[in-house]
Amino acid sequence: MIKKFAKSHEWIVFENDVGTVGITDHAQHELTDIVFVDPPKVGTIAQASQPICVVESVKSASDIYSPVSGQVIESNQSVADDPALVNRSAEMEGWLYKIKLSNISELDNLLTEEQYKQSIGI
């Protein structure tokens, strides 16, 4: 299992050609109270670094960018039903979608946890 991070504050855990994607704890903290999550529909074709869905907080609406290219194979209905789940557990139960990667080498363009923490000043 490999965990990588995008500079745009998404994470991906990758195992057996499938990645689970969400926003980082840092991102949810910056957004504050999340009130709406619209995870991508199953079958959606994602392109790396392109918007895939939207998360809205009491402060603003934010595009979420796919860290990798591929096809969405599962959406987390729990975050649509309870958007605050992303605030409570951004990097566990608050995942947004699962994706079948079309180009595994795109993971090489993402940051390690240490690199991500350095990029946000932690």
Polypeptide structure, described:
The chain is an alpha+beta fold. It has helices at residues 25-31, 77-81, 84-88, 113-119; strands at 2-5, 10-15, 18-23, 34-38, 45-46, 51-57, 61-65, 70-75, 97-101. The protein has 4 helices and 9 strands. Strand 6 (51-57) and strand 7 form a beta hairpin. The longest helix has 7 residues, at 25-31. It is 20% helix and 38% strand. The two termini are 24 Å apart. The protein has one domain (2-102): RNA polymerase II/Efflux pump adaptor protein, barrel-sandwich hybrid domain (OB fold (Dihydrolipoamide Acetyltransferase, E2P)).
List the helices and strands and how they pair.
Layout: E1 2-5, E2 10-15, E3 18-23, H1 25-31, E4 34-38, E5 45-46, E6 51-57, E7 61-65, E8 70-75, H2 77-81, H3 84-88, E9 97-101, H4 113-119
Antiparallel strand pairs: 1-2, 2-3, 3-9, 4-6, 5-8, 6-7, 8-9
Overall average residue pLDDT: 96
| CATH-defined superfamily | RNA polymerase II/Efflux pump adaptor protein, barrel-sandwich hybrid domain
Number of strands: 9
Q: Bin the helical content.
A: 10-25%
- Total number of distinct structural domains: 1
Low-confidence segments: none
How do the helices and strands follow one another from N- to C-terminus? EEEHEEEEEHHEH
Estimated structural class: alpha+beta
Oligomeric state of shown chains = single chain
Mind describing the biggest β-sheet? 6 strands, antiparallel
Radius of gyration: 13 Å
Strands across the major sheet, in which order? 1-2-3-9-8-5
CATH architecture: Beta Barrel
What is the overall shape?
Answer: globular
First and last CA, distance: 24 Å
- The tally of helices reads 4
CATH class, anyone? Mainly Beta
**Approximate strand percentage:** 35-45%
CATH T-level topology = OB fold (Dihydrolipoamide Acetyltransferase, E2P)
